[in-house]
């Protein structure tokens, strides 16, 4: 591991759900992890305090906004950093909640919370916000230019993980054409074939996958997506791959949301293994789930952003 000088003017904290990831990032970055002081009052209100003076320190906040409470906590931590005069505030959002709701359908009068929630983050004035494997890059531009943003792709980690599986005759499959460009990029890095399934959405959490190309015949397939929410699309795509002659099917997604009965659905499916990252709090490796950490990637991004004389001098 690259040796970096210990940075005493960097304070790294995390939202409650992302504390384990925050500690891993701090270890890799060779900075101290600062545990927030928290408690909950009888009426449900939450108390937060920084464990020490952060004035003139460079505050790093790590937190997925996977729940409404987690989103509010990130806003509180950013505003707290401003209140106590941090020199700069850098925010890492490993998983952005509501990220699939980045646009409103015509005449629906629905609220595109992917955009509105991200604007809330920008409006409390962090200096820098980085996101991991966004569903849509539209959220990067939901500010008026006062915030530096970065979209961090996990391609390097994904390729390393797939290579570690030692699979021959590999084909990558996207559950739909919308994700096919990312899958094509991964396939080029792995020097393997790729294709996309035909998928239509007919309700909020319901899709139908109709067919997959015969390129999967006699191959080992990895179905790749940005997230697995209920598991419906992934399982349907896996079944269509087997119908088309695939030998076996793995699934891979950066964000393992696994809502509702997703785990049971995946466990009852023909999918051999589900591979994903630790961006969503509480997801750990088990018999079916294989989790890798994004901590090395995030620490590399933070090192590039923070650990230069120019960046640390900025206010």
Structure commentary:
This protein folds into two domains: 10-153 and 295-313, Rossmann fold (3-Layer(aba) Sandwich); 155-292, Rossmann fold, CATH 3.40.50. It is built from nine helices and 15 strands. It has helices at residues 19-29, 68-83, 113-123, 155-164, 180-190, 232-243, 262-267, 295-306, 309-313; strands spanning 10-14, 37-40, 46-49, 58-62, 88-93, 128-132, 148-152, 170-174, 193-196, 199-203, 206-209, 220-228, 248-256, 274-277, 289-292. A six-stranded parallel β-sheet has the order 9-8-12-13-14-15, with helices on both faces. Helix 7 (262-267) links the parallel strand 13 and strand 14. Helix 1 packs across helix 8 (295-306) and helix 4 (155-164) crosses helix 5. The longest helix has 16 residues, at 68-83. The protein is globular and about 60 Å long. Residues 200-205 have low confidence and may be disordered.
